């Protein structure tokens, strides 16, 4: 019997996988990577040859990054990790934060650590999970503060896409993670890339709110121009630290008050 086969990137045609292989299912689920590669494959979009699938506004500012040695090493390593490990989020959502919130629409930035490492959780937005997924403890605490701060009831879903659509850049410090292994991709190069993103927001925009929860997020503080932006800091909303200053920090009302004071439409924090 002839079984459907999938050819691995960079592997000779004879090295193919049968549909009975456990790896076949994973590759099929991640066909965005194993078919048309996300990295280093020229794409004709808006008459521009892109090396990475991100929104035009971000690509214009980040284009030089994709020529740097760290990026070439990072992209090669990430491709290998997707081939040999189970990695989240799925490749099409790796840059969901940038694609959901174009540069010129950014009003606020919420910086997280890395994607959730449980199956089905990560959707490319910091602290956010897909619809139908149990709300993680840190996000439960965020919703508790949302209720305390501006009296918005806890939603049924932890999907924060509507915040991103309104101009909240939901950026993780590290954009990928291995299944069941938190912070597993820390230190492989993502931090250089995300630091550059924050630098671009700080230098090119006015009156943005940066919400930095926890030590890892607060490491960005020195590259943010506090003379023209608002920086809100507190401990991380994790159950391990939440009672040491996260509750009562009022990040949502502070954000909207600052935006209104600067003539910017506030965020509707109520999830749809």
Task: Please tag this protein with its features.
272 residues; four-stranded parallel β-sheet; 13% strand; globular; disordered N terminus
**Overall radius of gyration:** 20 Å
Structural category: alpha/beta
Query: What form results from the Cα inertia axes?
Result: globular
* Record field, number of beta strands: 10
The largest pleated sheet is described as: 4 strands, parallel
Percentage of residues assigned to helices:
25-40%
Give the integer mean of the pLDDT values.
Answer: 86
Instruction: Tell me the span between the first and last alpha carbons.
Output: 49 Å
SSE pattern = EEHHEEHHEHEHHEEHEHEH
Which strand-content bin applies to the residues? 5-15%
Number of helical elements? 10
Low-pLDDT sequence parts: 1-17, 34-47
> Strand order of the main beta sheet, please?
7-6-9-10
Describe the structure.
The protein has 272 residues and is of the alpha/beta class. Helices cover 33% and strands 13% of the residues. It has 10 helices and 10 strands. It has helices spanning 22-29, 31-34, 56-62, 69-84, 96-100, 137-150, 161-165, 190-204, 215-218, 251-261; strands spanning 5-7, 16-18, 43-45, 48-50, 87-88, 108-112, 168-172, 177-178, 209-213, 230-234. The strands form 4 sheets. Strands 7-6-9-10 form a 4-stranded parallel beta sheet. Strand 1 (5-7) and strand 2 form a beta hairpin. The longest helix is centred in the first third of the chain and has 16 residues, at 69-84. Residues 1-17 and 34-47 have low confidence and may be disordered.
